[in-house]
Amino acid sequence: IPVIEGIRANSTGMVSVDTSKSTVADAAIRAGANMVNDVWALKKDPEMAQVIADAKVHVVLMHNDINPDYGDVVYDTIEELKKSVDNAVRMGISEELIIIDPGIGFGKNVSENLAILSRLEEYKTIGRPVLIGTSRKSTIGNVLELPVRERTYGTAATVAIAIAKNVNIVRVHDVVEMVQVCTMSDAIIRGKS
């Protein structure tokens, strides 16, 4: 909470808290957070949706599954995310405040994560902004056979491809490097300089 308060005292930018607990989300929102990233898409804490709806903050609904049995990982996760969006709206969250995340690295193996990355544009059919968080993930480590601290270039590749596939938000660790990747990718793909 002191970190959020400190950031808020010095910035008007978005401040996101990563939690699936309504008490944590409520305290973070009161401290100045204006986005809640719930890796369980409101399924773990029955009070979470009400906290978000009352505060009128953005929410990231991420796909996650403990015992997945995918036929087609992209189709299946899209269908689950559609249900999560519908559920959030039914519980009083404004659809305009909902962001979706396919959940790279959560309940998915390397080939499933790569399939999602190769078909990211399909998530746009849900009609909500798409966020991905691939930064330094184990899929990159497995493909490149590199430890966590050496995955910057692999992360850059996933970020550039995500932008080419019309993803709206990327969550990263190496901010300086990835801002350059995003800026260049946006200039090529979206004509933004």
Helical content stands at 40-55%
Low-confidence segments: none
Distance between the termini: 36 Å
Q: Beta-strand percentage?
A: 5-15%
How big is the Rg? 17 Å
The shape, in one word, is globular
In terms of topology, how is this protein built?
Layout (H helix, E strand, L loop, with lengths): L1 H9 L5 E3 L3 H10 L3 E4 L9 H8 L2 E5 L10 H18 L7 E4 L8 H9 L12 E2 L5 H7 L7 H13 L4 E2 L4 H15 L4
Parallel strand pairs: 1-2, 2-3, 3-4, 5-6
Helix pairs in contact: 2-3, 5-6, 7-8
Question: Could you list some keywords that capture this structure?
Answer:
single chain; alpha/beta; 193 residues; globular; 6 strands; 10% strand; two-stranded parallel sheet
Task: Give structural notes.
- 46% of the residues lie in helices and 10% in strands.
- It has helices spanning 2-10, 22-31, 48-55, 73-90, 110-118, 138-144, 152-164, 175-189, and strands at 16-18, 35-38, 58-62, 98-101, 131-132, 169-170.
- Strand 1 (16-18), helix 2 (22-31) and strand 2 (35-38) form a beta-alpha-beta unit.
- It is globular.
- The mean pLDDT is 97.
